[in-house]
Amino acid sequence: EYARVLAAKDPAVSERFWAEHLAGLPGPTLLAGPSPQLMEELPRPLVHTLSAELSELLRDAARTRGVTLNSVLTGAFGLFLGARTGR
Fold first, then answer.
1. Domain boundaries in the chain?
2. 11-28 burial, b if ≥16 CB within 10 A, otherwise e?
3. Which of 33, 38, 60, 67 is geometrically suited to a Cys-Cys bond with 71, CB 3.0 to 4.6 A?
4. d(Cα 80, Cα 86) in Å, to the nearest integer?
5. How far apart are CA 63 and CA 68, in angstroms?
6. Which of 80, 84, 82, 58 has its CA nearest to residue 71?
7. Which superkingdom (predicted)?
8. Is the pTM of this model over 0.70?
9. Residues 52-82: pLDDT tens digits?
């Protein structure tokens, strides 16, 4: 479903949308910071399971706004990153 939605979008329209909405921003947010020491082991994954009720609320929010659940979660992650970086 998501692939069909993306395929149907006009790239020029999307580019204009983002150019207008991002105009005037000072530049990219560099989240990485200084390079950390390389470690032998990879970090452990962090998993959080949502309740069925919260999952349904998120699906409803996406459906109501005509977007995918992925768009809602990506937006939430963007808000989180903005709060953490002060941007």
1. 50-87
2. eeeeeeeeeeeeeeeeee
3. 67
4. 10
5. 7
6. 58
7. Bacteria
8. no
9. 999 999 999 999 999 999 999 999 999 998 8
